[in-house]
Every structure is written in structure tokens, then in C-alpha cells.
Amino acid sequence: MTSSSTPRMVNTTYKRTSSPRSPTNSGELYTPAHEENVRFIHDTWMCVLKEIKSPQNERNERGPQEYVEKNPNPSLHTFTPIDLSDLKKRNTQDAKKS
């Protein structure tokens, strides 16, 4: 593994929230540490998306940057991203039907 000179994203605006996530209908129970990790990742990702969508002149010089391949892989030309939330909803609905 090689080290990269690219700076890592660090969110210094993270605030701990006290509202816990409800367990899903599948009976999964989440530990407080798991819930905190999920909130942190979600909140940080929302900040990244907000910064990326802001006009270029409002962005912090060291803020997030969208990566674009200089030489795209031709075998990925037909790749279509999948919405995992939508897939989970469909699988849950299919399980309820059967």
C-alpha cells in the first residue's frame, strides 16, 4: 500500500445528537456506539454534499473535491449506480409479500 499526499476529510463541525435511531422491523438492535457512528457518517456526508453543491467561490480551499477519472475504464462505460436504500426497501416489501 502506498501513502497518498491527498489530504483526508476531517469534519470539525460534528455535533453529537441525542435522538437514537429506531431498530428496523427485522429485529436488529443497534448499540449506542453503532448509532453514533451512523449519525457521524450521515451528518458528515450531508456536509460534504452541501459543500460540493455550493458555488465554487464559497468553497473552502481545503474542502471536499469531486473526483473525476482522467482516463475512465472502458469496461465501466455501461455501469449504472444502484440506490441501496431503494434496493433494501424493495427487498423488504418482497419479504412481506411472501
TrEMBL record:
<dbReference type="GO" id="GO:0010494">
    <property type="term" value="C:cytoplasmic stress granule"/>
</dbReference>
<keyword id="KW-0539">Nucleus</keyword>
<feature type="compositionally biased region" description="Basic and acidic residues">
    <location>
        <begin position="54"/>
        <end position="69"/>
    </location>
</feature>
<comment type="similarity">
    <text>Belongs to the MCRIP family.</text>
</comment>
<feature type="compositionally biased region" description="Polar residues">
    <location>
        <begin position="1"/>
        <end position="28"/>
    </location>
</feature>
<dbReference type="Pfam" id="PF14799">
    <property type="entry name" value="FAM195"/>
</dbReference>
<dbReference type="InterPro" id="IPR029428">
    <property type="entry name" value="MCRIP"/>
</dbReference>
<feature type="region of interest" description="Disordered">
    <location>
        <begin position="54"/>
        <end position="98"/>
    </location>
</feature>
<feature type="region of interest" description="Disordered">
    <location>
        <begin position="1"/>
        <end position="31"/>
    </location>
</feature>
<dbReference type="GO" id="GO:0005634">
    <property type="term" value="C:nucleus"/>
</dbReference>
<keyword id="KW-0963">Cytoplasm</keyword>
<feature type="compositionally biased region" description="Basic and acidic residues">
    <location>
        <begin position="85"/>
        <end position="98"/>
    </location>
</feature>
<protein>
    <submittedName>
        <fullName>Mapk-regulated corepressor-interacting protein 1</fullName>
    </submittedName>
</protein>
